[in-house]
Structures are given as structure tokens and as C-alpha cells.
Amino acid sequence: MESIAPSFVVSPGELADCVSALRASTPLIQCISNSVVTNFTANVLLAAGASPAMADLPGEAGDFAAIA
Predict the structure, then answer these.
(1) In whole angstroms, what is the distance from residue 58 CA to residue 67 CA?
(2) Could you give the CA distance from residue 33 to residue 39 in angstroms, rounded to a whole number?
(3) 17: closest CA among 43, 42, 51, 49?
(4) Model confidence pLDDT, tens digit, residues 39-64
(5) Is the pTM of this model over 0.90?
(6) Strand (E) positions, 1-68?
(7) Packing angle between helix 38-48 and helix 12-25, nearest 10 degrees?
(8) pLDDT in tens, 1-34
(9) Distance, CA of 18 to CA of 30 (rounded, Å)
């Protein structure tokens, strides 16, 4: 199996700065996901510092678009 090399390298310091910026801004992320991975996806986003919104009803799309 062939390995895939990254197109760029991020230093640990740069990664830490990105994570800090994410956690400082706590962005609202609208997730459109299937029901099998909804809880996992929300937990990953919470651990990263985001605010997940697991809104998947068509009627909610306009409200979230207005927030964005």
C-alpha cells in the first residue's frame, strides 16, 4: 500500500495556535449527518471547541443560514 504524503507540514506550534483560535471563537457549526454518527460528530466538535448544531430538518435551514 502506498502512503500519501501531506501537501504541507504544520508545526506543533502552528497547530496549537489554530486550536487556540478555534476555542476562543467557539464557532457554531451546522451539521448535516446521518443518525448513526450524530452523537460522535457532536462530541468531536465539542472537544475541538466548536458549538455543534445538529439541525437536519429542512425547515431549520433558513434559520441557520441567517445566523451564518
Answers:
(1) 15
(2) 10
(3) 49
(4) 999 999 999 999 998 877 888 878 87
(5) no
(6) 28-30, 51-53
(7) 100
(8) 566 766 788 899 999 999 999 999 999 888 888 8
(9) 20
